Protein 1
Amino acid sequence: MMYNPYQQPYMPQQRQEVIRVNGRNGAEAYQMAPNSSILLLDETAPIIWLKTTDGASYPTITGYEITPLKVQSGQVNNTEFLALEERIAKLEEVIANGKSNITNAKPTVKTIKSSQ
C-alpha cells in the first residue's frame, strides 16, 4: 500500500450538543478539566454561563443575559408604504418638471476671519 501525503486521514464525527444546567448552582457543579472553558445554557432563566478553569482547575463563572433577536421580515407596513409612495410621487414630479427645491434655497455663505 502506498502512502499519499495529500490524503486527509479519516476523522470520525464527534457528537455536538448544547449543555444545559439549572441555575448558577448547576454551572458550578459542572465538572471540567484544567485550562478549559465552556458555555452552559441555563434552563431556568435566559442566561448563558461562561465557565473557565485555570491550571489548578479553579473555576471562574460569569453569567450573561440572552434575548432573542428580532428578525425583520423585510416587509413594509402600511404607514411606511404610504410614506414611501408619497416620496416617490414627489421625486417623479421634480424629475418631470425639471425643478428642484434646491434651486429656490438661498446659498449659505460663511465668513472666515484670519488671525493676523
Protein 2
Amino acid sequence: MKLIDLRDPAVRAAAVSLFDARYGEMEQVLWLLSVNSRPGLLAGESSPALEALVWTVKSWWGVQGVRFETKAQMARALAESMAWSPDLFGPVPGYGPDGASFACERVAELVGQSMSLGVPRREYSLASKVLHWLMPWRVPVYDSFVRSALGVPASWDHPEAYRKVSAEIFALALAMAEDSAWTGSLEPASPLRALDKLTWWLGGGNAGAAAEVRDPWKVARKLSLRFP
C-alpha cells in the first residue's frame, strides 16, 4: 500500500464507510467503555469499565498471546501509574511533531508500567490500542496492518516502528485537517480514529481479519453502562 493511496479522498471515504458498516456497533461499545473509564482514571483508580476496555480491545481486535492477567495489570498501570487530566480525553488544536512525541512517550510508559506489574512482554500493540481509545485525538494505533499500510518494515523493533507510525499518522492528520467529510459520523470523531480505520482496512483488514461480534452490547449490559 503506497502512501499516495491514503491521500486519495475517494479511497479514504470508501474505506472508512466500509469499516463502519461492518464494525460500527463494536465501535460504539468501545467508545462507551472509554467514556465510562474516565472517572476512575481521574481518581487514580482502576474500574470494571477500564478492565473491560483493555480486554475487549484485546479480544475483538485479535491481539495475540496476551495473558488474561494482563487485563487487571494494564488497567492498574493506566489508573495508578499514569497522570490524567480531563483535557487529555478531548480534541487537540493541531497535529504537530510534539503530538507524535507525546504518543510515543505515553505508549512506552504504559508498556513499562504494565511490565512492572507483571505483564511478561512488551505489549506495544495492545497499549497503543487501549490508549488510542482513551485518547483518540492523541495516540495512534500500532499493529501489523498499520505498519503494512504505512510501509514500516516488519524487522524494526517496536519503539522504533511506533515512532515512525506516529510521525506518519500525525503528518497525514495534519495534511487532511481541512477535509473532515471522509472521517464518518461515528464517535469519536477524531482524525486519528479515522486514520486507524483507513490504515487497518487497507493494510489487510479488508480481507476479513477481525470477526464481527454478534452482540457487542453484551459487554455494556453486563456492566450496566450507559453514556453519561
Protein 3
Amino acid sequence: MNDYTEEDVGNIILLEHVNVQVPDQLLATLFYVVGLGLTRDPYLNFGLNNMWVNVGEQQFHLPTRPAQVIQGHIGLVLPDLEALQDRLAAVEEGLRGTRFSWAKQSDFIEVSCPWGNKFRCYPAGSQFDDVVLGMPYVEFLVHPNTAESIANFYVQVLGAPAAVESNGADRVARVKIGRNQALLFRETRHELAAYDGHHVAIYVANFSRAHDFLGQRNLITEEARDHQFRFKDIIDLDSGRPVFFLEHEVRSLHHPMFGRFFVNRNPRQSQRSYKRGRDAFHPSLS
C-alpha cells in the first residue's frame, strides 16, 4: 500500500506574521524596506506607531516600542541574493552605530537588524518547496532537554506534525506548518535572556481544540474574540511546567484577514532603470 502521509498537512495552516517591537520607524524602514527589499503594507498601519512589512504571503509587524529580540533567527527566501548584497551594502552607512551587520555564507546571507534580530536569507530552492519570496521558518533557541516536550505540545495541543531531529548533540524540534513552513526549536547550552514578549500569528483549522485544552489549564492570556485568542506558555504535558515562552496569536479560518492578499513590490525597480509593467513582484522575475 502506498504511503501518502507526506500529502497531509497539520492543523496549523499558516504562519502569518512575526511581531517584534522596534524603537525607531526610520531605521526599521531603512533595514526592512530598503535593505532587505521588502514591502511596507500600503493599506494597514500606515503611520508612525506601527509598520507592517510584507514578505510574500507573510508579514513582519513592527510596533514602535522598546526593541524585542528573538533568540534564534528568522529564515527568509528572497529572489535575488546578488541584489540583496548590493542593497545591504547601500544601507551600511545609514545603519552605522546600530547592531546591523551582514555576511555572505556558503548557501545563505546572514543579516542582523539594527536591534539584533538575526535573519538567514536563502535563494529559492527545493528545500523550501515552491517558495520564491517568503518566510519559511522561524528558529528559536531553547534550553537543553526541552525539544521532546515542545514537539509533544504541538502535536497534542495544536494538532501539528512535529518531531525531534538530532545530529549528534544538536537537537531540534521541528513543527510543520501548512505546505512549506515550520517553527524550529533548537536546544542550546548558551545562556538565554528572559522572554521579552515578541509573538507569532498562526491560523488553525481546528480552533476549539487548542482553546479548550489551554482554557482548562488557565493558559489563555487573551480570551477568544474576533476569531482569535492568545497564549504564551509551552508546557511539558506530563508535569505541566512551562518549558518555553512564545506568545501565539491563534486565529481561526473565519478570521477576516485569513487569505488576505499582500502587496509585494519588485525591489529591482528604480527611477534610472525603470521597466514598464514590472512594479509588482512576480515569481517569474526571480
